[in-house]
Write a structure and sequence with these properties.
Layout: E1 5-11, H1 16-29, E2 33-37, E3 57-60, H2 63-69, E4 75-79, E5 86-87, E6 96-101, H3 110-113, E7 118-121, H4 130-146
Parallel strand pairs: 1-2, 1-6, 2-3, 4-6, 4-7, 5-7
């Protein structure tokens, strides 16, 4: 039995297809919740599994709103290409984690990245689509929990 919980979300997401895709990936990999910070999209799309029936989507108005209302004693893990980040394959996932992805065009702002207890990046030659990035992070967590990595 796995202990803890985790959620995943996107800061200031630009395209609704990424919200729907991340929601679907979250459900597939057993995330407890998904979230958005800010709102630049009109509606969720690409959620062909109707994940909204099985797991909540929390919508925070701003980064400050998110930081005030996130779960207590749950580590914030930024997923961003930065010198501070460690490679995902070397990362130990905390028991309770919130994975924060950046907007498609601007990433995670520095002030919010500073609030993260850990920052990871996927070692690729260039950045991935934000929903795909979320799927890779969730797969890595699941594989390591099962001891199959």
């Amino acid at each position: 039995m796995n202990r803890g919980y985790y959620g995943i979300g996107i800061y200031n997401v630009k395209k609704p297809v990424n919200v729907g895709g991340l929601w679907r990936h979250g459900q597939a990999f057993g995330a407890s919740f998904v979230f958005t910070i800010g709102r630049r999209f009109r509606k969720e799309a690409s959620d062909t599994t109707k994940a909204w029936r099985h797991m909540p989507l929390f919508q925070y108005e701003s980064g400050a709103d998110f930081l005030t209302h996130r779960p207590r004693q749950c580590q914030l893990v930024g997923v961003e290409i930065t010198d501070r980040a460690i490679a995902l394959d070397r990362f130990y996932h905390p028991e309770r984690a919130i994975y924060l992805l950046g907007a498609e065009d601007h990433g995670i702002p520095g002030w919010l990245l500073d609030e993260c207890q850990s920052v990871v990046q996927i070692p690729t030659r260039f950045c991935l689509n934000v929903a795909s990035t979320g799927a890779v992070v969730l797969y890595d967590r699941t594989a390591k929990e099962r001891g199959t990595k």
